[in-house]
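Hi everyone,

Forwarding the result from last night's run.
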Amino acid sequence: MHHVLVNSVIGYSEGEFKWKMTAMKQIMRETGGVKIPMTLKITPGVLRIAGPLLKHVKDPLALLRRFPFLQDVIHSLPMGKQQKLVQDSRLFWLLVRNAVNTQATFRPSQGMSTMLGSFDTWDMGVTQAEWIARAKKAYMEKGTFLDDGGDLGCGGTFENCHLGYLEGIYLYGSGDPEAVKASAEIIEAGCNAAIEQAMGIPIAAFGTVMNKRFGPACHDYPRYLSRIKKALDPNTASDPFFYAEPEDERAAV
């Protein structure tokens, strides 16, 4: 498979939904796409068995590409109630954090925010995810944050998995003063943990104040940002807030 996509089809009427599904099937027929059934549970055990066998098959999905109706047959197979609930829940959370149209249709809370997030190894992403899950737990138990199971990271791997990125999303009510206060607390805690536990420069580390805060722990990088900003934009024609102020070079040395 060259590309694996999760596509959410939402219709505001039965007719609109059927039209969209028909259009999506036509696109898949024209491009050789295949629907992967939700009834198919891929586990590490299955991959260990199937992996060596599939190495000898040029296109494991060739039959489904040639006879698209088989995809509908597989999708129509019954699944247990518990398995369906698990699959629906997993798909819902996946789409809520990644698909704009799903976010607009389903709003589990009034607001969301994020913390940590740094381009590094995928091991670093896992380390951040573990910290985030622990940090959110107390707030979820009190009902301050929406209980998302502790796992609502957003990120992925790049450069053939040599580079990874993950940030921790949490959901809260922006109209709840206690939740807003908790949001500020957990972001601050994430910044402190990033420095103390060497978890990289987080997504919130931008601007002069945060640059100065993280600079001493990260090779004093703000001085280079300031030099670049001064060289490319000495008159500050572009808002420097998300980058760095073009500070006096003597102060940046």
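Strands lie at 111-115, 153-158, 163-172.

Cheers,
N.
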